[in-house]
TrEMBL record:
Zn(2+) binds at H72, C100, C103. Its cofactor is Zn(2+). The active site is at E74 (proton donor). Residues 7-129 form the CMP/dCMP-type deaminase domain. This is ComE operon protein 2. It comes from Weissella koreensis. The keyword Amino-acid biosynthesis does not apply. The keyword Hydrolase applies. InterPro entries: APOBEC/CMP_deaminase_Zn-bd, CMP_dCMP_dom, Competence_ComEB, Cytidine_deaminase-like, dCMP_deaminase, dCMP_deaminase-rel, Deoxycytidylate_deaminase_dom. The lineage of its organism: Bacteria, Bacillati, Bacillota, Bacilli, Lactobacillales.
């Protein structure tokens, strides 16, 4: 086995992490990739509706403790798939943060079969219950310094 090659779960999670850097949310940067048959088929990050002001420009729009200006990363990925006519049935997601209960419902309704997440974030008991009822696999993916060192970003600097 080649120790220099990153494993698939870490590879896809690193793509989600990279996408999170596009987030315009002031509270939490979230990125997600949707994978089917080992191929990335959609992606998303949290931010405002396309063409409207972003939270990092005009501030959060808070209602009942939640920013309602932002579209969640998982929602953006599912909407991207809908626009492109791509079925989510049987796909899995890699998301930087455990999905909220609303995103969990959307993911399950769309047919996502596995949720891979990096960080726990306000894990909702009802979301967990729904995943168990739907028999959706849940896995936390860990990233190590070794995983990060395999990206060799330095080779792209100053070229």
């Amino acid at each position: 086995m080649n120790s220099e090659r990153i494993e698939w779960p870490q590879y896809f999670m690193m793509q989600a992490v990279m996408l999170s850097s596009r987030s315009t949310c002031t509270r939490l940067h979230v990125g997600v990739v949707v994978v089917k048959d080992g191929r990335l088929i959609a992606s998303g990050y949290n931010g405002s509706v396309a063409g409207t002001p972003h939270c990092n420009e005009v501030g959060d729009y808070m209602v009942d403790g939640h920013c309602i200006r932002a579209v969640h990363a998982e929602q953006n990925a599912l909407l991207q798939m809908a626009k492109m006519g791509i079925a989510a049935q049987g796909a899995e997601i890699y998301v930087t943060d455990f999905p909220c209960v609303h995103c969990t419902k959307f993911l399950l309704q769309a047919g996502i079969s596995k949720i891979n997440y990096l960080r726990s974030y306000h894990n909702d008991d009802f979301a967990m219950e729904l995943m168990q009822q739907k028999q959706v696999e849940l896995q936390q993916v860990k990233l190590t310094e070794s995983d990060l060192s395999k990206f060799h970003f330095e080779q792209f600097l100053n070229n």
